[in-house]
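Why show two proteins at once? Because comparison is the fastest way to build intuition. When a single record is shown, students tend to memorize it. When two are placed side by side, the eye starts asking what differs. So, the first record is below.
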Amino acid sequence: MARVTVIKGSGNVFGDLGFSEEKSAELILKSNLLQAVQDTIKSRGWKQVEAAGQLGIDQAKVSKLLAGQMAGFSIERLVHFLSLLGQDVVVTVREAPRGRQRGTVRAKILNSLEKKVAT
């Protein structure tokens, strides 16, 4: 039986894959927005053609979105899709704590229960 080496991740999969800090931050944000688009489409039980009509894109692009392909979808475009799906997207900018020269990028997606509590 072959030995397997397990290395604990840092919590930033993109950083662990060798992406720069800046690119990792962008990819984390994009992946969270993409997940929100996927979750919204799936929760509504839409077929890809229905989602395409709502988003104003063709079914092939919806297929790519649902497959998790981020290439070809900018952060701006994903935010636009969420708006078309009736989702609010909130961006908060604040100063990083002392001692840290660079800020971080995080996204939190409120599920249905959290949305009810937040409003």
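Second record. Ask yourself what differs from the first in the token line.
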Amino acid sequence: MPRSLKKGPYIHPSILKKLGRLRVGDPTVIKTWARNSTIIPEMVGFTFGVHNGRSFINVNVKEEMVGHKLGEFSPTRKFLRHGGRMQKEQEQKAAEAEKTKT
């Protein structure tokens, strides 16, 4: 559920302050831990370094992202692969197909 229209979107004050100092298209990365901040139209064109708990992931804000949260574009969990016999068989087939190509 989005935040009440009466209250408006939540944007961390430090992000707004940093946005005021920079121009659109500036290559400077704005580092933030505020994953719950909503992306607003003024953020389009900027690059944010969103913390995922371990490191900062660069997020280039585009028009389609407006209304979403910054944390949605910085995953906190690393997907390795599904396990099991079927996965191993698929990987073996892919390796064999790659060998036949070369």
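One difference worth noting in the second protein: The CA atoms of residues 39 and 65 lie 7 Å apart.
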